[in-house]
Every structure is written in C-alpha cells, then in structure tokens.
Design a protein that fits this description.
The protein is an all-alpha fold. The chain has helices at about 5-10, 15-25, 30-35, 45-55, 60-70, 70-125, 130-145, 150-170.
Amino acid sequence: MTTKLFERLVTKFSIKVADLIKYLEISKATIYNYRNLENFSDIPKDKQYKIFYLFGKETEEELILVLDESDPDILAKYVNRISSILKGSVQEQKESLASIEELEATNERLAKENAALQRQLAMVQGLKDIDEFTRTVLLDKVASITNGASTAEIKEFIDYLDIFEKYRKFGGKN
C-alpha cells in the first residue's frame, strides 16, 4: 500500500486545509494528523467514505490509481469535481448558518409575542369575577377608546382610570 496516501492526494490536487476542515467536519489538527498517517485505513471509516466520494472512487486502490494519473484532461476533471463538492459543502454550511440565524430571530420574535400574550392573559384573568357580557362590553369600550389614540391620549385615559380606582376605594362608598 502507498504510504501517506491522503497527504499525497491533498498535495497533488492542491486541496486547501480550510476546505477539508469544512468538508470533513474536523479540526485543523486532525487534518494534519490524517496527512501524516502512513496507512489510509487508519482514517475513520466515515471520513474515508467522504474522501472516496470527493474523488469519485470506492476503494483505497482506486485512490492510488488517481495518484498515478498524468493525463491533463482527466486531472482537470478531478480538480473540477473536487472544487464543485468543496464549494457545495461550503455553500451548504452558509445556508445552514443562515437558517440558524433565521430560526434564532423567529424564536426571539415568538418569545416576545409569548411574553405579551402572557401579560394580556394575566390582565384578562383579573376580570374573571366579572360576568362574560360585562367583561366583553368593558373590553370593547376600552378598545374603542384607545384605538387610534395618541400616546398622550392613552396616558390621559389611564390617569382617569387611576382616579376612578382611588375614588371607588376611598371616596365613593359614602
């Protein structure tokens, strides 16, 4: 068997370490460890399969034959295949990253919506002792007063409600 097969393949086809890191999903140190291995079979099977796929081969013996290839047209086909697969791998990772960012943004938006709904539920539960008809009329009236109102008008409405609450608690029971 040919020694340092992986190293020779990487060198012959000028494959960048950064591309291999992304494609094989391993660290830079692991890439260098693979490059220094005497036997290709010492590379984990799942990574061997990815390397076979990169060259369109199924066995170590077929990879050895790739090293012996000198026809420029065939070598160009290998380079194109490798470039295409590595670029595809990088593109998939970029798309995955974009998807993760979108999911995080959606999660943040939904968390805010959930918090707002929890506050609304707590407020509505404060009206639980009022009969359904009265509660509906009250909420409809508040909605009609505040709908389209400016911030200052809403503040004034809330101030009136505070005044009514104090009146009811302290002065309205005479």
